[in-house]
Amino acid sequence: MVLEGKVVLVAGVGEGLGREVARLALRDGARVVVAARSGEKLDAIARDLDPDGKRIAARPTDILDFASCEALVAEAVERFGGIDAVVNVAALDTLFGTLESTPDDDWKRAFETNVIGTLHVVRAAVPRLRERGGGAVVLVGSRSQWFPPDNHQIAYASSKGALLSAMYHLVHELGPDRIRVNMVVPTWMWGPPVEMYVKWQAGQRKIAEQDVIREITAGMPLGEEIPADDDVAEAIVFFCSDRARMITGETLQVHAG
Hints:
The protein has 257 residues and is of the alpha/beta class. It is 47% helix and 15% strand.
């Protein structure tokens, strides 16, 4: 129970990675505060993860609104007494385009959500992490921030690169308060979004779904299957735990090699 006694805040909880982070944090002993824009879906996920509601709290949150993030943190403090770790999964990753085809509005939306929105969550949580004598911040990156993408997503990739740069600054700014800041970088994750993509590609190209999966995993030494959402969530939970107490400023790729 590596998170026994901890309070973990997870922003961006839907049917994919965010849900798995919350599920594994509960499994490992934490009390969990979950946030997303859709209150109805969020409540349903919270009920499913912890039916009696004793160890989970849910609050609809718009990470673009700093006051909304402050209210989320206040909810965590009121319900569970504080925060020990904050994870931001919320991101806008559905923007596609090249330098020439990406409109200015897509650039703005990518940076507003993936950089400013993420840092709203962190900024709201930092005073409460300090009150606990330190804690963990876990960001979620993208391989596209370093490597040529599978699809043209220059705005999204650039925003994740900017978030990585922000992480290095946060490491030095927050380190004296014993607040660790790390980033987990997934590859393809087998969960609802990728399942939909595989079905779509198979239908469009009139090939078997397994053929699409083989294409995705072709460059993965461990790639008999696509890494699952919970494989990535396990790495996030590790960074939230005291087992990572002397690790900060690191990126951990979960990509099957």
